[in-house]
């Protein structure tokens, strides 16, 4: 049985950092946004082809071994496998497919071929990396839903939420290989991904945990310990009481460009968006997210903390 912690929610919510921190726990592999292994690593059509270790994905010892295991060491077969995997993802594992994948998981019927392929990929990673837990920060709710009923997979789901105004401000600017996105589109995705993620919690409450980014940033050690307990990890959180950590090499397929950071990192809330976000952009994001703001504990009119508190 392969153990997986699948992280869902919307992008720019701190999931890459959370995944990399978990990857510092012995026996844990943070794979990044694993969905893009085939697009980036084999077909070369993605936004970035670097593994988190700094090598091109096909040259990374882990991913080259995983791809060879699944494709029998045949480059042509690897391309055909990748093409098929991408077609199946588009056909069955987009956010719009979340309810169908939940229905499959609840009924324990034969999974869609895309789900069987995903389970096989996790098994290959576990074997090649000798991993006790794989963290996938893919953030596609349909994948998380499917894993709750995938054969050979013991899945837990972590739903990470961040204030939609903060994510909209982060998306306002391009970041390395990721292009910008406007506040209406970003917040529309925020609504869709979070609502779909909630459905998993209602269907499989024992497998689901919700975490607000703001709570993690305020209490990183305690909140990471809560995540680790959910993932059945019996170890000390790799974060000090003061919120500092030391990041080593990871093997993330893709994700936020910050995944390439190494060395000491201080975990604290990034509230610069409260001062830099244009009023019109904030108003648009607030209007689009209004039905969900109170549910997640976010005020309609957020304000920066007083200067004295920021300096404390």
TrEMBL record:
Top-level division of the source organism's lineage: Bacteria
Signal peptide positions (record): none
SUPFAM superfamilies: P-loop containing nucleoside triphosphate hydrolases
Gene3D superfamilies attached to this UniProt entry: P-loop containing nucleotide triphosphate hydrolases
Xref: Pfam families: Sulfotransfer_3 (PF13469)
InterPro entries: Gal/GlcNAc/GalNAc_ST (IPR051135), P-loop_NTPase (IPR027417)
Region (Disordered): 243-262
Family annotation (PANTHER family): CARBOHYDRATE SULFOTRANSFERASE, LD35051P-RELATED
Annotated protein name in UniProt: Sulfotransferase
